[in-house]
Design brief:
CATH topology of the largest domain: Rossmann fold
Mean pLDDT: 93
Shape: globular
Number of domains: 2
Largest sheet: 7 strands, mixed
CATH class of the largest domain: Alpha Beta
CATH architecture of the largest domain: 3-Layer(aba) Sandwich
Order of helices and strands: EHEEEHEHEEHEHEEEHEHEEH
Strand content: 25-35%
């Protein structure tokens, strides 16, 4: 494989063009000229307006809602670059959809995260760049190099201004303990866990708090918020336990279905998210604040292009 390329090209699909434009500004380049649309029957149509022959190509596309449409756009763009003789193709997927289907939870379940990984590689991606995979083992689903950046550090830096002796990081369930512990260590503060149990079928879930939270200010940490049921229930449990102020944060704000109404009417005082998914205007409420991953992804793209170690990013105070 060629490892040093004379020119970098950055392209974007339709899923998160504002983020792609911000990354381009950070890199000091213009977005590549490409038309990504659809034929009248819904088929994806891609027209590349410039040469990519021998170039180091990066395609920014989150596989968020509409998931299948955005995934198909990514695949067709990768194939377009491959057939245009690009020197190397990196799929920059800030939010990797289908990541929750990473194992057989019950008999005859598909492992769709592996299927999607195979399709992306088969389309022609030479490497993948993403942020906070839902499950770390998904890195092994790809047969090409994958860089899984840590978005939690950006959130940790934001909340460092609130940290005092009364600050506690909270995991909304047992499955998110490792993620919450990382943030707690970064902020050098205590941690608690919301233990959610259903005693019997059709009975209301019982919430227990593991850790000291009464009279404290708490930060609930998760990698993604979809319908917001778990995080809002956790906030209610913390409120009932005597918590003073409740913050929440996540890398990927999926926010589908009743999520916005639940958050608006919840005990959460502020929710801080990253812009791996473009939040539409109708979902932008006062309780939600968005931080950008543009600098993080721009630095990662530059390091890949220049063949520099990715570990340099985590010591850069301008990013973290």
């Amino acid at each position: 494989m060629i490892t040093h390329y004379t020119e970098m090209k950055l392209f974007s699909g339709n899923s998160n063009k504002p983020l792609a434009e911000a990354i381009a500004r950070e890199l000091g380049i213009k977005l590549g000229e490409i038309e990504v649309g659809h034929f009248s029957d819904g088929e994806t149509s891609v027209y590349l307006k410039e040469s990519v022959r021998g170039r180091d190509v990066f395609i920014v596309q989150s596989t968020c809602t509409p998931v299948n449409e955005n995934l198909m756009e990514l695949l067709v763009m990768i194939d377009t670059m491959k057939r245009g003789s690009a020197g190397r193709i990196t799929a920059v997927i800030p939010y990797f959809g289908y990541a929750r289907q990473d194992r057989k939870a019950k008999p005859r379940d598909p492992i769709t995260a592996k299927l999607v990984a195979d399709i992306i590689v088969s389309a022609g991606a030479d490497r993948v760049l993403t942020i906070d995979l839902h499950a770390a083992q998904i890195q092994g689903f790809f047969n090409v190099p994958l860089d899984n950046l840590v978005g939690n550090y950006i959130l940790s830096r934001y909340f460092s201004r609130f940290v005092d002796d009364t600050f506690v990081v909270v995991s909304p369930d047992v499955g998110s303990v490792s993620r919450a512990r990382t943030v707690a260590n970064k902020l050098n503060c205590q941690m608690a866990i919301v233990d959610k149990r259903r005693p019997k079928a059709n009975q209301v879930e019982v919430m227990n708090i593991i850790g000291e939270v009464e009279g404290k200010n708490c930060l609930i940490v998760d990698d993604m918020i979809d319908t917001a049921g778990t995080i809002c229930q956790g906030a209610e449990a913390l409120h009932n336990a005597g918590v003073k102020k409740i913050y929440a944060c996540c890398t990927h704000a999926v926010l589908s279905g009743p999520a916005i109404d639940r958050i608006q009417n919840s005990y959460i005082d502020k929710l801080v998210i990253l812009d791996t998914i473009d939040l539409p205007p109708e979902k932008r409420i006062d309780k939600i604040e968005t931080l950008s991953v543009d600098k993080l992804l721009a630095r990662a793209i530059a390091n890949i292009h220049q063949e520099n170690p990715m570990s340099d990013i985590y010591t850069d105070s301008t990013i973290y």
